[in-house]
Amino acid sequence: MDAVNRTVAKLRWLAAVLALAPALTVHAQQATEPAVKAAFLYKFSGYVEWPASAFPAPNSPVVIGIAGSDEVAAELEKLVPGRNVNGRAVLVRRVRDAESVRGVHVLFVGRGEGGARALTRAAHLQGALAVTEVDRGLELGAAINFVPAEDRIAFEVSLDSADKSGLRISSRMLTVARRVVPRL
Amino acid sequence: MNNSRVSRRLSLILPVVVVSAFSSLPAHGAPQRVAEIADLDLEQLTRITVTTASRRPQRLVDAPASIFVINAEDIRSSGATSIPEALRLAPNLHVARTDSSQYSVSARGGTTETTNKMLVLIDGRTIYTPLFSGVFWDSQDVLIENIERIEVISGPAATLWGANGVNGVINIITLPAGRTQGLLVSGGAGTEERGVGARYGGALGNTGGHFRAHVKYFDRDRHTAALGGELRDEARRAQAGFRLDWQEFMVLGNTYRGDVENPAALRETSGSNLVARWSASRGEGSDVRVQVYYDRAEREHLGSFSEVLDTFDVEYQQSALAGSMHRLIWGGGYRHSRDRVTNSASLAFLPADKKLDWSNIFVQDEILLGAGLRATLGLKFERNPYSGTEALPNLRLAWSPAPDHLLWGAVSRSVRAPSRIDRELNAPGSPPFVALMGNDTFQSEIANVVEGGYRAQLSAAGSLSITAFHHDFPNLRSISPPGRILANGIEGRTSGVEGWGSYRLSSTWRLSGGATFMTHKRWVKPGEVDLGGLPSLGNDPRRTAQLRSSWDLSPRHEVDVALRHVGALPNPAIPAYTVVDARAAWRVSRSLELALEIRNLLDREHSEFGLPANRAVFDRAVFLRARWTP
């Protein structure tokens, strides 16, 4: 009887090891920059508080607008299906001009976009969180700007710009930010 | 500039320790892979290595040392309210609590009431006491929410950190002021402890700088004594501090006062410190850093002694790339202390008033040898007031067979320099000193250390580190004739293995764990006599282990469970114990989090450390906490 128990115990152990084995397989690849930025954009919306008026209904989706980066838009479109932010679905919309910022909650202005200043101004007016990826992006009016940090991606936050869009940014995001520009 | 001394050094020699944790995310976005990234939190996202950077060949991925990093999120989900409790998160440390506020914290053995082979820094300020080369944990504190991370190195790191980093270095780093803006209030009450802390941060006009200020207060109840009755170890402490950060300049200060209400030996501690640091990056690996600090620490142990310790410390460090192969770090430091002790009938430090000076210079070269191989050569000369100049050399080799795998090995000579207790302590307080007599021939305790390890990032979700080590101690402290003096009559050896890993089973569930196994052999050298020094060199468990589970039930609810096991301590004997800690947190709204924290959930009464008469018994403790960030 004792021997049986021991054998069963051994089998269980073996089963547990086998179950873990796929997890131990090595992946030595890395993420592409657009994929990481897309993940950031999705995550940011969980750390931002919009006024109730920003959503037509309590279950209206969060709309992430993308200008000037087809790569980030493509990654984000792959990412959002089936995901939600605080119970809201997430929609991706490609933005061409200031006019189409209406209804957008997070606006990403990629490096490929020439009219960054006009778009961030539109974001302020429409109550959207403006995110850029250029030098001095915060000075252009972005609330969040991606900055390279060696071979990783960091971001900086302007509470002043967030204020202009009427947004509140969680302190949890600020503890991760590389730099925080305070309210003026 | 926001990095402390050690962290800046870490960022140079041991880059990406912290950062390697999620560095191996798969590329070429198959949808499920992108999805995997999206399951990480913001902080983890900032750690992902992206493939676009052209500097990649120069990236020095992994740390050729046994390092564990405790991050802010781990501390939050552990419910720790003090530094030593947070240090329990490091599998390579043995954290042993004696009573409400006294702890012994050590890596690789040597745990005693006066653990003396660890170097501990808070924001670049060493919190070592020259009385016994250790830390008085009853007076060291920070606002827990201000901690950015704690880097724990087991094993010697003396070349860059200096003498005393024999068995390990603990480097506590707080957040820069710019990342602690606005108001935070955190506090709670429980069966053993009540506490409250608050901080407020804002901008410094238009200077681009930020400030924060914090206050913290706690009081803890007495415990049951191991020998029965009550220990009367109730304690309370108040602390306040500030920090100012500009682009290249940082100033911080703290002041504290606390006491332990024990009529047998009332203990009062107080102190203040001020740290200023200037650090500038000239690009391409060239950095300069100058730091100065002043620290005053006062303590009174009623009936045995009191002390006022003033310390002034200045240090300089520079780093540069030399060609494409060499990364050099060099620098030096000077520290002056004045230690004024009031002696008593039971013991006497002679002289009572002592001025102490330390100085050091060091250089380290990290050489890229190609084919994933790199070598680190370091040498430090440190002069201490007792044994003169000590050389602390260090050689490390690291080989990356693949980008996320590292094999490393190191040989080091490390030194625990004499302290006041080794040379100047006499007992009783007046002659004849029959119990202990000061001895000005006591020499440094040397450690010759060989270690090797393997570290890997196994897929995006898992990581692993394992290290084997052997420490040779040719001249440990003994109590020897003539009379009873402290001498170097004991030899010792410590060998063992330490390892840890973490694995994210799903986007909401993470498991982590670690263990240490080691043996300690210590013996009196041939021709020497020991009159009781052996038992005071370490009361260490042969094994420790921990397993932690962090589970987010929903975006608003999380449950954390930790199981930790410590093997039996030999002398004085303390039985092995296994304790389960649990925490349930509820994010009521964006600004309010409530948490119920239960230490020792199964109510296994146990003691962790100390002489039988001083030892507390710990049973189940419940704490209800609220954290508010309007």
Q: What report would you give on this structure?
A:
The complex is a heterodimer of chains A (about 180) and B (about 625). Chain A is of the alpha/beta class and about 180 residues long. Helix content of chain A is about 35%, strand content about 25%. Chain A has an eight-stranded mixed β-sheet. A two-stranded antiparallel ribbon of chain A has the order 1-9. In chain A, helix 2 (about 35-45) crosses helix 3. Chain A is globular. Chain A starts with a helix and ends with a strand. Mean pLDDT of chain A is about 80; it is low at about 5-30. By secondary structure, chain B is mainly β. Chain B has a 22-stranded antiparallel β-barrel. In chain B, strands 1-6-7-4-5 form a five-stranded mixed β-sheet. A two-stranded antiparallel ribbon of chain B has the order 2-3. In chain B, strand 24 (about 445-460) and strand 25 form a beta hairpin. The two termini of chain B are about 30 Å apart. The interface between A and B is large, with 49 and 56 residues.
Features:
heterodimer; A: 184 residues; alpha/beta; eight-stranded mixed β-sheet; two-stranded antiparallel ribbon; 10 strands; globular; B: 630 residues; 22-stranded antiparallel barrel; five-stranded mixed β-sheet; 7 helices
Task: Please provide a brief summary of the model.
With 184 residues, chain A is an alpha/beta fold. Chain A has six helices and ten strands. In chain A, strands 3-4-2-5-6-7-8-10 form an eight-stranded mixed sheet.
**Mean pLDDT over the residues of chain A:** 80
Tell me the Rg of chain B in angstroms. 24 Å
Helix fraction of chain A by DSSP (H/I, runs of at least 4): 25-40%
Shape of chain B: globular
Number of helices of chain B: 7
Write the layout of secondary structure elements.
The complex is a heterodimer of chains A (184) and B (630).
Chain A: H1 2-20, H2 33-44, E1 48-49, E2 62-67, H3 70-79, E3 84-85, E4 88-94, E5 106-109, H4 116-126, E6 129-132, E7 144-149, E8 152-158, H5 159-164, E9 168-169, H6 171-176, E10 179-181
Parallel strand pairs in A: 2-4, 2-5, 5-6, 6-7, 8-10
Antiparallel strand pairs in A: 1-9, 3-4, 7-8
Chain B: H1 5-13, H2 31-38, H3 42-45, E1 66-71, H4 72-78, H5 83-87, E2 94-97, E3 103-106, E4 118-122, E5 125-126, E6 147-154, H6 158-161, E7 168-174, E8 182-190, E9 193-204, E10 209-220, E11 224-225, E12 235-245, E13 249-260, E14 267-283, E15 286-301, E16 305-322, E17 326-342, E18 348-349, E19 353-370, E20 373-384, E21 388-402, E22 405-416, H7 420-424, E23 425-426, E24 445-458, E25 462-480, E26 485-506, E27 509-524, E28 543-554, E29 557-566, E30 577-587, E31 592-599, E32 616-617, E33 621-628
Parallel strand pairs in B: 4-7
Antiparallel strand pairs in B: 1-6, 2-3, 4-5, 6-7, 8-9, 8-33, 9-10, 10-12, 11-32, 12-13, 13-14, 14-15, 15-16, 16-17, 17-19, 18-23, 19-20, 20-21, 21-22, 22-24, 24-25, 25-26, 26-27, 27-28, 28-29, 29-30, 30-31, 31-33
